[in-house]
Structure formats: structure tokens, C-alpha cells
Amino acid sequence: MHEPDGNVPPDILIDGRIAVEVRRFTQVRELEGGHVEGLPQTTIPLVQGLLSELRNVGPPAEGQSWFVFLSFRGSLRWSSLRPSVRRHLDTFRPQNTSEPFLLRVNECVSLSFYPASQQLEHRFVLGGYSDHEAGGWVVAELIKSMRFFVAEKSRKVVGYHFNYQEWWLVMVDMTGLNFSPEDFTQGRPHFPDKGLWSKIVLLDRSCTSTLVEI
After folding, report:
1. Is the sign of the CA dihedral 66, 71, 72, 77 positive or negative?
2. Are the C-beta atoms of residues 59 and 121 closer than 8 Å to each other?
3. How far apart are the first and last CA of the chain?
4. What pLDDT score was predicted for residue 61?
């Protein structure tokens, strides 16, 4: 049963007694002051903001479209970055329209422009992005994310824990790090205690295979 008690934990109820919380398992970023956040909290709004801004520029100038690749590091807010990006887009005048062009927006953000082989609907088309704080040592990232999300979900359900006999935390791997069995062997001694959870499970992205169970 989905959300048996409304917009409060658990997400799913099995056989009337097993409460299940579900979450995407992503990499996390450490911020100043010891705070931690999941990468999608800032990455997704940033990429979506750029995508919208690129489309707002309109059709190609002089018949030339460009694929734009975003590279960045740090926790960035699109609202503060947008004016500078728009200014650079409006003044984009490469001397050679057949060669890639690198534009540094600031010390944390750069845009790479690659000429499209044919005219597209828009002058600028988002080709991709790279977060330089994603990646890293695979086992270290696995441990960091496991600790963060188990703690996050534990805080969320602690007030509802006694409503059901058993609680499971099910997470779906969205990191793209392709964890191996050896990664879990190395990481397991450093995983958090189960605490109030009867079972903690990490599934692969397709939700067809269990990567690890605590």
C-alpha cells in the first residue's frame, strides 16, 4: 500500500506490518561548516536553469547552432549565476564558427561551445554537464552516501517508528559509479549501524538486483 498514513512515513506498507521508506541513492557534497547535501539538490536546478536559458536565446544566428557543455564545481545557485551566464550568451561572438570555444563564466563555472554540424531549432543546445565534485574514490563515496542517507531517513521516521513492527529502508543507486562486489566488501565495515531499521537495501538502478543488504 502506497503512503498508508498520508503524506507521512512510511512510503509503502507491506502485509500491514512492514513499513518501507524509499530513496534515491546519490553522491553527496560536503559544504562549509560540515553540512552535507545530495548532489541533485543543486545540480538538477542548475542544469535545468541553464537549459531554459539556452532555449530562451532563440533560433540560430547566421544559421549556426552550438552544443553547450557546462563544467562546474561547488554548491551553486542558478538564481545568482543566471545574470552572468545570460550576459555571456548575449555577447557570444566566436571568430571561428568551425572550432570549439571555451568561455569561463567565473572561477567555478565554464561553458564549452561546440559547433553543430547542422542548423537546429535553437542557437544553443545543452550537450551535457560535468560536476567536478562528483566522482572520487568509489568506496569513499559509497560510505559517505550510505551514512548520510541512512541518517537522513532515520530522522524522518523516528516519530513514527512505533506505528509498525518492522521498518525497511530501500535505496536505488543513481550514482553511476558502478559499484563492484569488492567495493561493498571494503565499505561494509564502515557502514552505519542499522539503528531502527530491520533491513537496509541498496538496489541497482533498474530495481531488479540487490547490490547490498545491511
Report:
1. positive
2. yes
3. 24
4. 80
Query: Containing H/E element for 148?
Result: helix 138-157
Q: How many CB atoms lie within 10 A of CB 168?
A: 18
**How far is 149 from 186, CA to CA, in rounded Å?**
19
Q: Give every strand in the sheet of 199-203, ordered side by side.
A: 12-14, 18-25, 166-173, 199-203, 210-213
Task: For 172-192, write each residue's pLDDT tens digit.
Answer: 998 877 788 888 998 999 999
**6-37 burial by CB neighbour count: b if 16+ within 10 A, else e?**
eeebbbbbeeeebbbbbbebbbbbeeeeeeee
pLDDT tens-digit map of 152-175: 999 999 999 999 999 999 999 988
Cα–Cα nearest to 88, from 57, 62, 63:
57
